[in-house]
């Protein structure tokens, strides 16, 4: 057992990184999951057994080289808080992911830095109250989406359905 601990520790360190990686250059996306080429076997059945999922921070770039999005990946999926910027480097959004899907608080921003929208996702669907703002910060629209209690969360067909909308 004591001999396995160092090997396990090295394996975990080899599969994760603290330095953000350029996901377009170093990772491959497969069904929303990001994998590396390290240890990746290209034989006919090798991908079933030897794929290496990436754990650690990653980012995407715009064509002009500016950072477009950045956040953590866990087991190859976007997880935790991700930030996005426009091609001039101005903050565009901040939102949470869980297993590669939007899940949690999301906030968008206008190019002038004022809030553009805020709301929550659950299992990739908009839920609860979403508020939209103009570029001066004034509220322009408020929408309410169906929100399940814990019992029906994963199986209810109405999740994400718009229930009410109010313009200002």
Runs in which pLDDT lies below 50 for 5 or more consecutive residues are: 5-16
Number of helices: 3
Q: Roughly how many Å apart are the termini?
A: 65 Å
Structural class: mainly beta
Total strands: the figure is: 14
Question: How much of the sequence is in beta strands?
Answer: over 45%
Residues in helices, as a percent range:
10-25%
Mean pLDDT: 83
Largest sheet: 11 strands, mixed
Give an overview in words.
The strands form two sheets. Strands 1, 5, 6, 7, 8, 9, 10, 11, 12, 13 and 14 form an eleven-stranded mixed sheet that branches. Strands 2-3-4 form a three-stranded antiparallel sheet. It is mainly β and 168 residues long. The chain has helices at 4-14, 23-26, 46-50; strands at residues 21-22, 27-30, 33-36, 52-53, 56-61, 67-74, 77-78, 80-85, 91-98, 101-109, 115-122, 125-133, 139-145, 162-167. The protein is 12% helix and 48% strand.
């Amino acid at each position: 057992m004591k001999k396995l601990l160092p090997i396990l520790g090295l394996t975990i360190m080899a599969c994760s990184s603290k330095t953000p990686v350029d996901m377009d250059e170093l990772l491959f996306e497969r069904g929303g999951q990001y994998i590396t080429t390290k240890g990746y076997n290209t034989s006919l059945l090798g991908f079933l057994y030897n794929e290496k999922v990436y754990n650690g921070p990653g980012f995407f770039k715009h064509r002009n080289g500016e950072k477009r999005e950045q956040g953590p990946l866990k087991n190859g999926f976007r997880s935790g808080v991700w930030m996005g910027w426009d091609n001039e480097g101005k903050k565009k959004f901040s939102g949470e992911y869980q297993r590669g899907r939007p899940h949690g608080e999301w906030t968008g921003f206008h190019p002038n830095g004022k809030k553009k929208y805020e709301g929550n996702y659950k299992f990739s669907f908009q839920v609860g109250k979403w508020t939209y703002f103009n570029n001066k910060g004034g509220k322009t629209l408020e929408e309410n989406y169906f929100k399940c209690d814990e019992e029906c969360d994963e199986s209810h067909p109405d999740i994400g359905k718009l229930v009410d909308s109010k313009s200002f």
